[in-house]
Amino acid sequence: MQIHSYSEYDPSAQSNYQMGLQRVLDRLSITMRRNTLVRQTIDHLRESLQVDRVVLYYFYGEWEGQVTFESVISSEYSIFGSTGADNCFNQEYASLYLAGRVRAIADIESEPIHDCHREFLRSLQVRANLVVPVVIPRGLWGLLIAHQCQAPHFWSPSDIEQMQTGAKTMATAPCILDS
Fold first, then answer.
1. What is the pLDDT of residues 96-151, one digit of tens each?
2. Could you report the per-residue pLDDT of 12-48, keeping only the tens digit for each?
3. Taking a C-beta distance cutoff of 8 angstroms, is the pair 90, 96 a contact?
4. How far is CA 61 from CA 10, 66, 104, in A?
5. To pair with 78 at 20 to 30 A between CA atoms, which of 6, 45, 67, 96?
6. What is the sign, positive or negative, of the torsion defined by CA atoms of 31, 34, 37, 41?
7. Could you give the CA distance from residue 141 to residue 111 in angstroms, rounded to a whole number?
8. Within a 10 A sphere around the Cβ of 176, how many other Cβ atoms?
């Protein structure tokens, strides 16, 4: 065992350690604030819209993502961790959402959508779908999505406005912009 005298102590090493630890703590704090904001937003939206499920589909790569948060009326409707259908979401759709597209489908069985999209939504037990983009200055951060699983659902202008408000709240929050 080696014992160092006080004269050999390097204060810059201690300072670097403290700075590194502070960066980790700052990052953890931002993550906790972001998670709380997203969870509160989707819980509020599910209750307010009275739907079976509201999720955040987060993009971790170029048009690749997964459901990272969900609020469900029952665990049977959970799709937590689900990824999108590879062939359905591409540059064309990403560009539309990046430009602010809102997509409201009252009934997937009667809406003219691609077969791969319809099959994908069926596999998630979706009957009605409302999708609003979360756009930050760097680009498309995620999609805020409401699902009605049990029956068709007409999306009112108020429903759409509430979802857009939730997406804007997320898109402008420092804890998301800094993440």
1. 898 999 999 999 999 999 888 899 899 999 999 999 999 999 999 999 999 999 99
2. 667 777 888 888 888 888 889 989 999 999 999 999 9
3. no
4. 41, 10, 25
5. 96
6. negative
7. 27
8. 19
Q: How far apart are CA 117 and CA 135, in angstroms?
A: 22
> Six-digit token pair at 66?
């997964």
Retrieve residue 116's tokens. 């791969």
Q: Which residue has the tokens 């037990």?
A: 125
Across the beta sheet with 103-105, the strand order is 64-72, 53-61, 139-148, 128-136, 103-105
157-172 helix and 11-49 helix, angle to the nearest 10 degrees: 180
Please state, in angstroms and rounded to a whole number, the distance separating the CA atoms of residues 71 and 77: 9
